[in-house]
Automatic annotation (TrEMBL):
PANTHER family: PHOSPHATIDYLINOSITOL TRANSFER PROTEIN, VIBRATOR, ISOFORM B. Residues 1-245 form the Phosphatidylinositol transfer protein N-terminal domain. The lineage of its organism: Eukaryota, Fungi, Fungi incertae sedis, Mucoromycota, Glomeromycotina. One of its GO terms (molecular function) is phosphatidylcholine transporter activity. This is Phosphatidylinositol transfer protein alpha isoform isoform X1.
Length: 261
């Protein structure tokens, strides 16, 4: 098992980030859906249990066209679908990702605490045990200066170039993390477990590297979409999520084989 805590610093307030994150998730889902593949939102509803209350989502990621053809040919049924459950009790959130084929042999858990006026300096924002602290590796993510793959680069999603007309924020330059206001940090504790003899360490390291890439890309987008989400209310976001779910379902349905009548 590999445990890493990613600390993502953002040029916004914690309250703003709640709206920004949900908007960016909806937009990213659109980008990943098409040709019968992508994100299928099964549930998006309020929840309340012994631990608290918030918003529960259940999604299925259909991935067969996102992997090499040789893997598609060899993989058994269920291997190319990921199931995501998320409990969003903002500012605390938890996401669990599993796979139908791997069952209990694969689990990817992300637990996040969002902290206002923080620049990534809090040592134990998630209040984890001493045992986990000793196993944890801390990774600071700088959305402006960290390198990204050329295939992921988009000029209109470059924080070093983007300037928000509505807020006056950006571009993010040099040691912006020390200077920018407003500021908040997402403390993301990622635990990955992949039980497969001979491959466990290699795959777990690969998945952690992929998570770092995803967090970097996502938060670059989030900042560069500031003028799109800034000013939206939570009611606006819920309506936008509902419309996005409808559009995603339509997009996937059009690409799936139709039954003969």
């Amino acid at each position: 098992m590999i445990i890493r805590e990613y600390r993502v610093i953002n040029n916004c307030t914690r309250d703003e980030y709640q709206v920004a994150q949900l908007y960016a998730v909806a937009e990213a889902s659109k980008e990943e859906t098409g040709d019968g593949e992508g994100v299928e939102v099964i549930k998006n509803e309020p929840y309340e249990n012994a631990e608290g209350k918030g918003q529960y989502t259940y999604k299925i990621y259909h991935l067969s066209n996102k992997v090499p053809s040789i893997i598609r040919a060899l993989a058994p049924s269920g291997a190319l679908e990921l199931y995501e459950e998320a409990w969003n009790a903002y500012p605390h959130c938890k996401t669990v990702l599993t796979n139908g084929y791997m069952k209990d042999n694969f689990k990817l858990v992300t637990e996040t605490m969002h902290v206002d006026n923080s620049r990534g300096e809090i040592d134990n924002a998630l209040n984890i045990s001493q045992d986990l602290l000793e196993k944890r590796e801390v990774v600071i993510i700088d959305v402006a200066n960290d390198p990204i793959e050329p295939k992921d680069y988009k000029k209109d999603q470059d924080p070093t170039l983007y300037h928000s007309e509505k807020t006056g924020r950006g571009p993010l330059k040099d040691d912006w993390i020390k200077k920018v206001t407003p500021v908040m940090t997402c403390y993301k504790l990622v635990t990955v477990e992949f039980k497969w003899f001979g491959l466990q360490s290699k795959i777990e390291n690969f998945i952690q590297g992929t998570m770092r890439t995803l967090f970097t890309k996502f938060h670059r987008q989030l900042f560069c979409w500031t003028d799109k989400w800034y000013g939206m209310t939570m009611d606006d976001i819920r309506a936008y999520e509902a419309k996005t779910k409808y559009d995603l379902d339509e997009s996937r349905a059009k690409a799936l084989p139709q039954e003969e009548t």
